[in-house]
Design goal:
Blueprint: H1 17-24, E1 43-44, E2 49-50, E3 55-56, H2 67-80, E4 85-87, H3 92-109, E5 114-119, E6 122-127, E7 134-139, H4 150-155, E8 161-168, E9 171-178, H5 187-190, H6 195-198, H7 210-219, E10 226-236, H8 247-259, H9 265-268, E11 269-280, E12 287-297, H10 298-301, H11 305-317, H12 320-326, H13 332-341
Antiparallel strand pairs: 1-10, 2-3, 4-9, 5-6, 6-7, 8-9, 8-12, 10-11, 11-12
Helix pairs in contact: 11-13
Length: 354
């Protein structure tokens, strides 16, 4: 694969089989079945999920070896496009609530790297893992004591993207978010929309009542309750920033995979998985929606034969409307062919009745 030098962070390929297996050990493989059906798939958070490669899910906020590189990429994206952070003025209390929740979580789960100290409203935040390290005094409720808005500051401390959902008029509304690693959507466009409006383009979920049930479930969350779900798509060349705003930069990559050499597909097509956490905040009552993105190339996935087979089955049998919505309607076929040609997957496909 040709080296790209445009300043955009792309997750590096594993250096060896051992490196690939080490990375896969914490990968949240998203396919429990050989066909994919869109569903809420919500489960309690902080429960360990064991997989063919290892385990994942022990923590809400996950710090891994890509932490410093991904934070630098967040800084680049927010510098190039400040509209990746967007918030309605009425959400400022929820932003402070989210900031304290995230900083407390980091300091509790990873005390070797993070410390939140102070009493009352006067706090000091220490992030020793960031490059450069962050040492920040701030006063809760006083935005002038932070270098940016509270939610943006929180987003710059974690690999997760963050959205805050407010509840009014019997619905949820996406009123505040800092999203740098969107999978083909726009935070600036979605901000201020209702939960059903945000999910308007998703095929089949409205007819099946999934959106209505999901909204009702989220609105029923109690303060401190934590749940999670997964979502997935395919990404080319390990790029995290695939937001709508940057589509002219990454959109042509899809066609280059379709028209390029099959031998390169294993290193260019990545399975992209989001672990999404839903948390009802204690003080503001807003729901915090965390989106953590994981990427693994097919060449790494193929090191786990049952995963390679499952990915091939899901991609081959995915209904066309779902494939188009996920943006994989063209790239899935080179992926399927590569898995069958180079990924040691038997070309015999399951009969699903579709």
């Amino acid at each position: 694969m040709t080296t790209i030098t445009d300043g955009v962070y792309r997750q590096p390929l594993p250096a060896s089989r051992e490196d690939a297996l080490s990375s896969l050990a914490g990968f949240p493989f998203p396919f429990p079945h050989e066909t994919y059906c869109y569903s809420a798939n919500v489960e309690p958070a902080e429960q360990v999920r064991r997989s063919a490669a290892g385990q994942w899910g022990e923590t809400v906020i996950d710090i891994d070896r890509h932490y410093t590189a991904e934070l630098r990429e967040k800084d680049r994206v927010l510098t190039v496009d400040p509209q990746r952070y967007v918030a309605l003025p009425r959400m400022i209390s929820a932003e402070w609530d989210a900031l304290l929740a995230i900083l407390n979580e980091l300091a509790t789960v990873y005390p070797d790297h993070f410390t939140l100290s102070g009493t009352g409203d006067d706090r000091h935040w220490s992030n020793r893992l960031s490059d450069p390290p962050v040492e920040q005094d701030f006063t809760v409720g006083d935005t002038s004591t932070l270098p940016c808005a509270p939610l943006e500051f929180a987003g710059r401390q974690v690999q997760e993207d963050i959205a805050l959902l407010a509840e009014r008029d019997g619905m949820l509304w996406g009123d505040s978010m800092v999203v740098t690693f969107a999978a083909d959507w726009s935070p600036a466009f979605d901000a201020g929309m209702s939960f059903p409006e945000i999910h308007g383009p998703v095929p089949r979920v409205h007819e099946a009542g999934i959106v209505e049930r999901a909204q009702k479930f989220i609105m029923g969350l109690q303060p401190g309750q934590r749940f999670r779900r997964t979502n997935w798509t395919l990404t080319i060349d390990g790029r995290l920033d695939t937001g709508t705003e940057s589509y002219p930069e990454w959109g042509p990559d899809r066609l280059s995979v379709v028209n390029g050499p099959l031998t390169e597909v294993g290193d260019r097509v990545f399975l992209r998985v989001e672990v999404q956490h839903l948390i009802r905040l204690q003080w503001s009552g807003a729901v915090m929606f965390l989106i953590r993105t994981y990427l693994e190339p097919l060449s790494a996935i193929a090191q786990i034969p049952e995963w390679a087979l499952r990915v091939r089955d899901v991609l081959a049998e995915l209904p066309e409307d779902m494939a188009e919505y996920k943006g994989v309607d063209r790239t899935r076929w080179p992926a399927v062919e590569w898995l069958e040609t180079y990924g040691a997957v038997d070309a015999t496909r399951p009969d699903t009745g579709n």
